[in-house]
Design a protein that fits this description.
Blueprint (H helix, E strand, L loop, with lengths): L1 H56 L2 H8 L2 E26 L2 E28 L5
Antiparallel strand pairs: 1-2
Protein name: Ysc84 actin-binding domain-containing protein
Keywords: Signal
């Protein structure tokens, strides 16, 4: 009779360990998601400010943004080169004026070049009929 009881106790210990492992993973992933969400909020704010700057500098852009099915705004693209060059930036994807996701921009260049710069970039998507 002792053997089945020992098996039950071992099973309970395994279940408790599994539950605690899952709980720990959930807690750490939630903390990570909250930290990521704060960065995403900042990126959304920067992208919205960049859109306002685009429209202020080129008023025609307002109609293009309104007409677009979607667009990605990269508020800060960094580019640098010394023979080999590269660029990178994070952006926000908007669909019908609402945040639909996030995007990354990566670029690699080879050739005679030197220097660096930072800039904003917008990519607008039209519908198939336009």
């Amino acid at each position: 009779m002792l053997k089945p009881k020992n098996k039950i106790m071992k099973t309970k210990k395994k279940l408790n360990f599994g539950f605690l492992t899952l709980l720990t993973l959930f807690v750490f992933s939630t903390v990570h998601l909250n930290a990521q969400t704060e960065k995403q909020k900042d990126l959304i704010d920067d992208a919205t400010a960049s859109k306002a700057i685009f429209v202020k500098e080129e008023p025609e852009m307002s109609a293009l943004f309104e007409k677009a099915a979607g667009y990605v705004i990269f508020p800060n693209v960094g580019e640098g080169a010394y023979i080999l060059g590269g660029a990178a930036g994070n952006g926000v994807l908007f669909e019908n004026g609402q945040v639909a996701g996030f995007s990354e921009l990566k670029q690699l260049d080879i050739g005679l070049q030197i220097g660096g710069q930072a800039y904003r970039q917008a990519i607008l998507f039209q519908t198939a009929s336009e």
